[in-house]
Structure formats: C-alpha cells, structure tokens
Design goal:
Elements (H helix, E strand, L loop, with lengths): L3 E3 L2 H9 L3 H12 L5 E3 L2 H13 L5 H13 L3 E2 L2 H13 L5 H12 L5 E3 L2 H6 L3 E3 L1
Parallel strand pairs: 1-2, 2-3, 4-5
Helix pairs in contact: 1-2, 1-3, 4-5, 5-6
Length: 133
C-alpha cells in the first residue's frame, strides 16, 4: 500500500500564496516534512483552487497556470496530471471560457467521449469537441 494522504484547496492556497504565514508554515511542513510521502490532489480541488485564485485573489490566467503547473510538478503531489495540464493549456488558449468549462471539454476528449453536448453557446463556439444541443 502506498503512503499517500490528500490535500484540500485551502492547503493548496495557503501553500502557494503565503498570505497567512502560520498556515503557510504548517502546509509547507506537511508537504515537505515527510520524506517519501505523497499527497493526492483531486481534480475538483484544482478546479476550486483556480476559481479562488481568479475570483478572490484576482490572479491572471498566466499566473494561475504557472501556480497550477508548479503544484502538479511537485514530486509530493499525485494528481491527474494529464487532465490538469491539458485543461491549463485550453484555459490559456480560450480566454472566454471558465476553467470548469475547459476541464469538461478536456475530460470529454481524454475519455474519448466527444462531442460534449451543451446548451452553453459560448462553450460550443470556443471549443471544437463541444456541440450545441
């Protein structure tokens, strides 16, 4: 059995923003303090993380993508790397779309379940794997 635990969005935010020093310290000690320990970060935690960075911290898409990429590339983090990094690329390439919509279209493609049908005209107009219903 693998020595793995999970991290939530708030830990990711404190760790990357260092806006609350005491929580940043605890998050850093947790992530880097145990040699060989891995932490699972679910896709939904990344989606929530991006939303918080955009809506509450007013980070730009390039800043957000850089922060997400940093987390994904940490050897202590286990995640759906292909999905998250592909979603980041779509997010940069399609500024009219939310990260959530980029994730949905990415997962449809990665799952070979295309087209993704939607009533969202903006999403359908922005991404080739999406069809308006």
């Amino acid at each position: 059995m693998m020595n793995r635990e999970s991290l939530d969005t708030n830990v990711l935010l404190r760790f990357t923003l260092n806006d609350l020093p005491a929580q940043y310290q605890r998050a850093t000690e947790l992530i880097f303090g145990s040699a060989g320990k891995k932490f699972l970060v679910q896709d939904t935690a990344f989606i929530e993380y991006v939303h918080a960075l955009s809506a509450h911290y007013h980070k730009t898409r390039p800043q957000i993508t850089e922060m997400v990429t940093y987390l994904v590339q940490l050897r202590e983090i286990v995640c759906n790397e292909e999905a998250i990094l592909t979603t980041c690329a779509v997010y940069i390439d399609h500024p009219a779309l939310s990260f959530e919509d980029c994730y949905l279209s990415t997962m449809a493609q990665l799952s070979e379940a295309v087209p993704l049908y939607t009533f969202d005209k903006k999403l359908a107009a922005q991404h080739q794997s999406v069809k308006l219903l």
